[in-house]
Amino acid sequence: MSDDGDLITRPPFRDPPFRDPRLPVRTRVEDLLARLTLDERIAMLHQYAPGVERLGLAPFRTGQEALHGVAWMGPATVFPQAVGLGATWNPELVRRVGEAVGREARAMRARDPRVGLNVWSPTVNLLRDPRWGRNEEGYAEDPYLTSALATAYTRGLRGGHPERWRTAPVLKHWLAHNNETDRDTTSSSVRPRVLHEYDLAAFRGAVRAGAVAGVMPAYNLVNGRPNHVSPYLREHLRTWTDQELVVCSDAGAPSNLVDSEHYFDTHEEAVAAALRAGVDSFTDHDQDASKTIARVRGALARGLIDVSTVDTAVRRLLGMRYALGEFDGQPEECDGAFDTPAHRALALEAAEQAVVLLTNDGLLPLSESAVRTLAVVGPLADECKLDWYSGTLIRRGSPREALAERLGADRVVFADGLDTVRLRAAAGWVRVPDAAAEDEGPAEASGSLNPAHTAGRTDLPPLTVGDTPTDLSLADWGGGVLTLRAPSGRYLTVAGDGFVRAAAEQPGGWVVQETFTLEAHPDGHLLRHLGTGGYVCVAAGALKVAERDGGEEGAGTVFRLEVVERGEDAVARAAARADAVVVVAGNDPHIGGRETEDRTTLALPAQQERLWRAAHAANPRTALVLTSSYPYAVAEAADALPALLWTAHGGQAAGAALARVLFGDVSPAGRLPQTWYASDHDLPDPLDYDIIASRATYLYFDGAPLFPFGHGLSYTAFTYGELSARRETGLTVECEVTNSGPCDGAEVVQIYASAPGSRVPLPHHRLIAHRRVWLRRGERVRLFFTMPVEDALGFWDVAHGRWTVDPGTYEIHAGASSADLRATATVTVDGPPPAPRPVLLRGLEAADYDAADGIVLVDRAKVRGDAVACRADAVGRLLFRACDFGAGAMSMTVEAAYDAAGAGGGVTVARDDAMVGEDGAMVARDDGTVAGDGATVEAHLADGTTLATAAVPPTGGRYVYTTVRAALPTPPTGVQDLHITLRGGGLRLARLGFSG
User: Fold this and answer.
1) Rounded CA gap, 740 and 754, in Å?
2) Which residues are tagged catalytic?
3) pLDDT for 688-698, tens place per residue?
């Protein structure tokens, strides 16, 4: 009101309603949607949505990589890899890292509008198998810990404003994705319990917390159905929040639905199915949207979708853009927070907290006064490695540099441990010419934001042969994969013209061009370039990769390898001169375990094994630091060496952080986010996603790990006192912890639950809460944890299709790892005993088994539903416990499909109408069998009693089901376990029914 009491009239908002920030977002979205033409809406479905000039809309790109810093857009603060952030077990730290990354994304966008705000991070796939090539991208093997850290990171990325988002995070990769081998054609067989208790649980918490803009489906299939047409997007994901989540496809995955997976016959069918399933943004054909647009138009023309399907997707995309403040008519949020002192300090803090002390016999911490000379050796001792999703380093700090800065360069002895070699061909020694070109760096593909399009350098001269050899440093990364480095420090690489040059600063690229392998030849070795698969030959005096069909050249040139010095000899000399030795070994994130490439072994490369052994033999005061994206099986090193540490690649501050831990400025408090197994033999098949049956991860593993989940030592000690657990509105746990050691430090207090004597196989121990707490020497703290009982003690009850908590006594444990439990309390849950399966009323869904063998879960139909099939050349067996047959079941129905052609039979069988009942079901003979050439479904009781054998005739396709009814000559009564045996490739069992 004015001074005289009159109402002040606001001027009308002159822009259209979609730009009026006073209106509800939903109203604004609908106004904008109505103003867009159909062609404009269809174009917005592609990752690179064009601008709409007539409405003043700018172009918009979904997808900005930001896993541990803004990636692919030039210099940025680089934090530790995600698995390293997982090792901190510190959600508050991870939130602050997310906040820093979000601020830098805004600051970088202010300089370069190509920087996106829809960030494709974090990765919440569980680290079920440590051989997964993308192990570095995940947080942990445990769903609770993964969800807690993902929630923290997305909250940081999102920012704290109630309506306006700093960035819009998308979780990757939905769902059950943990293998790179044939990743776009393999299917993860995920039973309901594993689905609900494990894979969905990792996503659920972050989505419910409200800091997630959407998800990205994974390349793989789940239960025979591609994730990009998954019904779980609708049935689970979108039920966890009222927010309109955006689903962004992975790169090229929409085309895979037809091209590699052959799930649909045409791309129009594929894009329609993906839209109906809930995919909103199509990442396909890089910046070329024309194919996606044509496919959507074709789907509309064929009636596979209607305009409302397009509008639903566009509505979600516009909602995300509104949340980012795009249409508010105000300057974009940017506080200029880029490479700030606070961000540098945070990068150091994160790297420090990520260091895990695995063993220590008193060697650490080192003393500056006692260690006058320190040997710093190994292939990663003077490296600061990046990975595929790293930004470009603004500043670099290797262990050698950090330790030399601390002690003085004269007190640090260095040896990289690589073999020094020479190569000789018949025409002469291989030599690296002097580089006359300016150091221009790699050439970039014009207009592309994808680093996969970066081209190798051709401005430097190729390698030649002559009278004078060049000494090359050879690193063996395992499996025969080698890199060769010139004295200039550049790696041998191959550009598009095929010539071999010393031109790469580091190995890298979507297809790594810096790796080679030596293949034995009677006269020496052939040198094969792994990036192209071709052999290196000498052509016109220069080294190049021969064409596959290049005649004699294509067979490659024979080289003799002369070893000038073994790396272990140089390491032994350095170690002998020092008071202590730090061996820094591990992996290059672009080699031997990365996106598109799983590891085949947990073993440390043989060359690196030799290094630590040589160092230890020369100087028993040797510590091994494993800097890697994943665990190793290093039992002998753990037994022999006085100290062993692990850290993920720690980003820009990795070297400084390690130096501070080694010399005790920081007491290590990192904890393992996944189990370290003692041997490859401890692991199931990489494609076995049933962690319950395969006894995988710390939850179910029955063996003795090398280092357990949650393990990590300290320079101080912590004592656990009284632990109590009680049920109130939820489960409340109280725990007392004292720093009883000689110095200040942090403890990660871990709370686990177990259910002794449970009726179903439950985890040995399951993490339900944790807290990282810093305590001064002698300080005591009492910690309180509260959580829903269902989350802490529940499981998915397949018998009734719901989450449940059984009555009984549960144990609550507090400790320093999953295997170091210091205190235990019990809590009792009251209630009626679990009800048996009401099979007469509801029947049995085949996928809801309690135990199984020789089977795989498949898609019942392309849209939704699961069925059970036999594995190749196997007999399938299912167990359904506690089935209530009441006073007696007189007949059984089998709903199944039998694709005889798919099984290799190609049989056409005439239908015997005399065997068809009034309800259309095939009717069994009196002995419980059905005539025909089909597969069989056999039902038995636990005592071996055969109930029926139903033969399923060919149905004409894998999705064409028939119902076979069989009489039960010996009617089962009461509550009994039911055993089902499946025989026949091409058989798919959907459900069983019983009637009295």
Assistant:
1) 28
2) 250
3) 999 999 999 99
